[in-house]
Amino acid sequence: MDDATARAGLLMETVERQQQQAQLAIERLSALAQGLDQVVRQEIRSAFAEEFQMLGEASRRAAEALHSVRRVASVRIALWALAVTSACAAIPAAVAWVVLPSRAELAQMRRERDELAASVAHLRAQGGEIDLRRCGAADRLCVRVERSGPAYGANADYLIVKGH
């Protein structure tokens, strides 16, 4: 064999060894890549799960805060409703207490009304329905009389007043 063939054989052997080493390196890199891929996926899953748990916890705290706000708002609305209802009831009661007479005042007014009614009845009996007016240019006092009634007095100059 000549020197060139031996060199070519050695070169080919070296190339095959390097090719085998490259193939082994590629296989190891492929295995490492798969392992790395699994590690990355596992890390992503655990990070995602951790973030999801934190999001769930934050959501739960937000829901609790909203429930607290709702309870406080409900209490405030109830207090406002109570205050408005009380004011709506108290205002007419206060106006009625100020404007309307008390029981004692009503009793006093009823007594006065009865006394006035008795006075009016007494005045009617005494001629309170007599029709008196001012008559003539001298503005003299005159009275309406019953023309159909009899005349009285020595000169028959008294007549019965109409309405009495």
Topology:
Blueprint lengths: L2 H97 L3 H23 L6 E4 L4 E4 L21
Q: Could you tell me the mean pLDDT?
A: 88
Tally of alpha and pi helices: 2
pLDDT under 50 segments (min length 5)? none
| Shape call | rod-shaped
In whole angstroms, the N-to-C terminal distance is 179 Å
* Strand runs, count: 2
Indicate the structural class.
Answer: mainly alpha
**In angstroms, what is the radius of gyration?**
62 Å
Strands of the biggest beta sheet: in what spatial order? 1-2
Order of helices and strands: HHEE
Largest sheet: 2 strands, antiparallel
| Beta-strand content estimate | under 5%
Please bin the fraction of helical residues. Answer: over 70%
Task: Explain what this protein looks like in three dimensions.
By secondary structure, this protein is mainly alpha-helical. It has a domain at 3-100. Helix content is 73%, strand content 5%. The chain has helices at 3-99, 103-125, and strands at 132-135, 140-143.
